[in-house]
Amino acid sequence: MATLDILEPQLRSQLDALGIGYEVLPCDPQLADTAVFCEHYGYSPVDSANTILVASKSGEKRYVACVVLASTRLDVNHTVRKRMGVRRVSFASAEETRSISGMEIGGVTPFMLPSDIPLWVDSRVVSRPWVMLGGGNRSCKIKIAPVVFARTANTETIDGLAMATD
Q1: Is 63 helix (H, G, I), strand (E, B) or coil?
Q2: Most buried residue, 45, 89, 95, 164, by CB count within 10 Å?
Q3: What is the chain's percent helix, strand, coil content, to nearest 5?
Q4: What residue numbers bound the domain in which 111 lies?
Q5: Stated pTM of the model
């Protein structure tokens, strides 16, 4: 199977339309979770990013997707909650993530999310020369320059979205 064949056709089309070069890296689905992926394949967590779906817990159910470096921790209880303007938030469950995004945790890519979900990217992500992101499934990752986020719809770069994990 050619490397590009493991990409969903919809994702390939969206990435090509953004006009930023990218590399598709095959991944054993059992090794798709970021920490395990980095350790096994020799990538640094500072060059890997997670796309995390967060859900409001009060009022009308709303979602936001956040992209943060694997070397940081999403500030869900302060920055995310305040920016969403709600009293309580939580990480979306694996089932909720699958239902809303159509993707499994460990493979969620910011490029195939529903258009009504805001995409918030931590400023540390866009300062990297490249990052590894989920490939829409647990069988691949995408290596791409974060300048791509300047070309994606409904996207905002946010200082302090994530915190260092010391």
Answers
A1: strand
A2: 89
A3: 35, 30, 35
A4: 3-164
A5: 0.94
